[in-house]
Amino acid sequence: MSEVINEPMKNPYLPYKAEIVEIRDEVKGIRPIKTFKIKLIGRERFDYQSGQGCLVSVFGRGESWFTIANSPTRPDLEFSILKTGKVTTKLHEMEVGDVVGIRGPLGRGFPLDEWKGMNIVTIGGGIGQTPLRSIYQYVIDNEKDYGDLTIIYGARTSRDLCYKDELMELIEQGYNVELSIDNPEPDWPYFVGFVPDNLKRIKPDPKDTIAITCGPPIMIKITLGVLKDLGFKEDQIYTTLERRMKCGIGKCGKCKLESVYVCRDGPVFRYDELSALLEKA
Amino acid sequence: MKVYSGNFLKDVITRLLEEGYRVYAPVKEGNYHVFRVVKSADETDFDYINTKKSPKEVTFPENEILIKYGEWVEELPEQPDRLAIVGIRPCDVKGIRLMDRVFLEDITDPYYEAKRKNLLIIGYACNQAGDYCFCSSVGIKPYSSEGVDILVTNLNGRQIVEVVSDAGKELAANFELTDASAEDIEAKKELEKKVMESFTRKVDTENLEERMKRAFDSDYWKEVATNCISCGTCTYLCPTCFCFDIFDDGELKGVRIRAWDSCQFPLHTLESSSHNPRPEKWQRLRNRFYDKFYYMLVRKGELYCVGCGRCSAACPVGIDIAEVIDNVPSEVE
Amino acid sequence: MNAETLERIKEECRKLPAEISYIVGFVRKQSEPREVVAVLKPDEVDKLSFSPLSFNNPARTVMELAKDNKVAVIAKGCDARALKQLEKEEKIERENLYIIGISCPGVIDYRKFRNTVKFRLAEIDSVELIGDEVVVKAGGEEQRIPFSEVIFENCLYCEQPTPKDYDVLIGEPREGKVDFSDIEEFEKLSAEERWSYWMDVFSKCIRCHACRQVCPMCYCNECLVDPSNLAVSPMTPAEEKAAYPRVLGKTVNAADNLIYHIVRVMHHAGRCAGCGECERACPMELPLRKLERKLEKVVYEVFNYSPDEEIPFLSKLDILPEG
Q: Closest chain C residue to A32 measured between Cα atoms?
């Protein structure tokens, strides 16, 4: 496993000052998702690995963990945030120019160095696409280091798809992007059905391939089954876990799963690591 | 090994207070003892088996301000008070050392470190095991001087003083200590033997890792948790439980506080999606036993239980950690 | 509360109606003479135990179990009172209960017991109340302690030592009494003295919430003072979760602890069964019964209400007095 890249923070509980420089609506409605582009104030953006996250502070409300949604080869920090509670409701009310706190980079990211030369297949559902975006942006920016890239992504409806414009652009540029929605809609040219079914149809070759899957727990469970049927071994499959996080540095115990801290030893995990645990993720 | 003819514990408190230390010592309150900051040795009372609350509050207080926020964020200046804890039992000293491994290893917790690096530890050996004590079953000797600066033992009306560290040596130089005689050394050995025989509780820790691994999915844990009320008393009194919560107090201006939390509380792991990885109380109770006797053993190589028995003594419904671990089934049906 | 009482309990449990699926009674702990609540099957009667150390209140366990099962419960006076309250509040169906009532002379205060008994706890074979003496047997030895030295103080003011509602009663019925003399004594202190007393008490509280968790009346899923179990579902809107009122956070100091305790106790007006589990559960040994009994006194004197009445206290407040 690659090591955690962590810029030493003298006080790991002290956030950096950061400013919201752009807000983009990804999904509208009663469960909206917005992507925030955040710039650190007074310091350079730290280096990090795809898959690592930050604890974003909204003072007075608290902190929430978000996986960094953009690859470290792209500028600033982007977070795709679903409105779901105290902190995120306040974030959704914020505007460009507002100040938040950032603690990061936290956790263990994807071992992209180890994956050099391999084919990459990302399988995402709903807002689970966020950490996967960080992977495929990196792979696209370092194309010669990797094999084939396949992006499989689906959501319940076309209005629930995140990063739609970006993905459409990638399709136009000739990248292998396979989109899906659960139920038929007029003018939908792509697959209709659940993400694991789309995966079954695409049948990626497990030889020299790494598969990364993120999304709702039920989707991941079924996807795992499909990948195994296709011949993928557990040490070829990666995922990210979610837990309630507070300290972000492997001390407070909220995110503890068996003997691992999701915020410190994760949130990226390889499947064989999870299978070895007594407590199931 | 040295001998002091007076009450070393009280006299050392007087000396430390003169030197400007903030001294935590056992004080009798009602029916029990707790560690409090004392202004004079007269407030203290050392006639106890162990304190009600563990002394983890000295380095890990129940509430601690991390940062202040308003215009922006203010880090609080470190309070480099020199701290001393006098009269702490060997099990609790081990508890501090286990907490050190959590807060100082990997990423250093600066709040814990600031208190810990200035902490002088004057230990107090046990002459008798309590009714709930089982430290000897988890690899701790009740007369151990590991991790202390000075260890004091009551012996036949005098106090045996073992100086362990350099800081301890510096402090002990202020006292008239005579070398222990051959009889004293013999008597201490006898006392140590007597203490080891005074345990009425033993926990079978043989092959524990294997047993725990195999028993994870057993219904045994549901039975054990029948009466559990998820109150969190066990975790709050435990010297090695360190789960905490962080929350903001104040809408526009205020403080970010870290406070003790408990894996027994249902909200501990509740995610904002409303998914809860441990929704049932037996899962939470099982988690506590596993964390101490398996997960931390795997992660750090040490048992995170010091056998102080506080949780068993205080549990309102009588769940007893020593009994529970001793009875872990070796074969899962 | 001696070997005879236990025999009678076992006798009754052997002739339970066929539809009873569980017995909620007491069993002795392994390494000490204390008894804990146990859920047993009707064929496990021999595992039952009973002694003056069977002080826990089984009402909470019964409330869970009696949702879908018919349950026999061994209930002392205060336990039966708690069950009655839960029935009034529609948390238990009476038809699902088979109450084996015990006429209770009082239970032992385990803290006092541990200080007085000369044996190591693990050595004790039996603890019985014979007459007005507690007889402790260990190995071949015996120690007799006057019951008055180790009785749980709360029991001195017991209003209902004998269950009023039962299917079977063991022991001679005893009279309860309404006696607030200890509270009246306390009320004689000045306001400053009483304030200083309580602030000193609350400065010791560590907000472990054991008092709330152990109380049969504190069954709310969303507790006002600290949500022990936030009732959220995947359908709960974000705004609702964001605006959830937090009366108290996790700040632990005398003032916040005071709010926690007073608000909690207020919700027990007219409902408290007087079992004393709160005071027993408190690891810092706070005098919680004093607060509850003060409230009981107010409810009794000002509203002329006793928790044994058929209607809940709040319902009675809705009834306007005649004339």
A: C238
The rounded distance, in Å, linking the Cα atoms of A270 and A232 is 12
Average pLDDT across chain C, whole number:
91
Sorted by where each begins, the domain ranges of chain C are: 1-177, 180-323
Regions in chain B scoring below 70 on pLDDT: 77-78, 80, 331-333
Q: What is the pLDDT of residue A8?
A: 56
Residue C19, token pair as written in the block: 């539809």
Distance from the C113 Cα atom to the nearest Cα atom in chain B, whole angstroms: 12
Q: If we measure between CA atoms, which residue out of C158, C264, C111, C295 comes closest to residue C202?
A: C264
Q: Do B247 and A62 touch (CB under 8 A)?
A: yes
Indicate whether A278 pLDDT > 70.
Answer: yes
Say whether both B11 and B146 belong to one domain: yes
Cβ separation of B272 and A244 shorter than 8 Å? yes
Give the model confidence (pLDDT) of C69-98 as tens digits: 999 999 999 999 999 999 999 999 999 999
> Is B332 part of any domain?
no
Same domain, A58 and A138: no
- In chain B, which among 132-171 make CB contacts under 8 A with chain C? none
What are A52's two structure tokens? 């690592």
Distance from CA of A43 to the nearest CA of C (A): 32
* Residue B202 belongs to some domain of the structure: no
Q: Which tokens belong to C193?
A: 């003295």
State how far the alpha carbon of A49 is from the alpha carbons of A6, A102, B44, in Å: 9, 16, 54
Residue keyed to tokens 């071949």 = C140
Q: If you compute the radius of gyration of chain B from its CA atoms, what whole number of angstroms results? A: 21
Angle, CA A274 vertex, CA A270 and CA A278 arms, to 5°: 165
Asked which of B164, B197, B230 is the last residue of a domain, the reply is B197
In degrees, rounded to 5, the angle at the alpha carbon of residue A227 between the alpha carbons of residues A226 and A231 is 115
Question: So what's the pLDDT on residue A4?
Answer: 40
- Number of domains composing chain B: 2
DSSP string, B42-95: GG-----SS-SS-GGGGTS-SEEEEEEESSSEEEPPP----EEEEEE-HHHHHH
Q: Which domain holds residue B63?
A: 2-197
The model's confidence at residue A5, banded by pLDDT at 50, 70 and 90, is very low
Q: Please state the pTM of the whole predicted model.
A: 0.92
Distance set, CA A32 to CA A59, A123, B258 (Å): 22, 22, 31
Backbone φ, ψ for residue B83 (5° rounding)? -110, 150
DSSP string, C73-87: EEE-HHHHHHHHHHH
**C242 interaction partners in chain A (CB closer than 8 Å):** 85-86, 88-90
pLDDT at position C311 over 90 = no
Is A31 in CB contact (< 8 Å) with chain B? Answer: no
State the DSSP string of C148-162: HHHB-GGGGG-S-SS
Q: Per this entry, what is the length of chain A?
A: 281
User: In this predicted structure, what is the pLDDT of residue A141?
Assistant: 95
The residue written with tokens 């009279």 in the block is C175
Write out pLDDT tens, residues A78-117: 999 999 888 999 999 999 999 999 998 999 999 999 999 9
Domain range for residue A143? 119-240
B70-to-B75, B256, B259, B332, C293 alpha-carbon distances in Å = 12, 11, 21, 56, 44
Looking at the structure, tell me whether residues B172 and B226 fall in a common domain.
Answer: no
What's the token pair of residue A273? 């690591």
One domain, residues B98 and B212? no
Predicted confidence (pLDDT) per residue in A180-209, tens digit: 999 999 999 999 999 999 999 999 999 999
Say what the ipTM of the complex is: 0.91
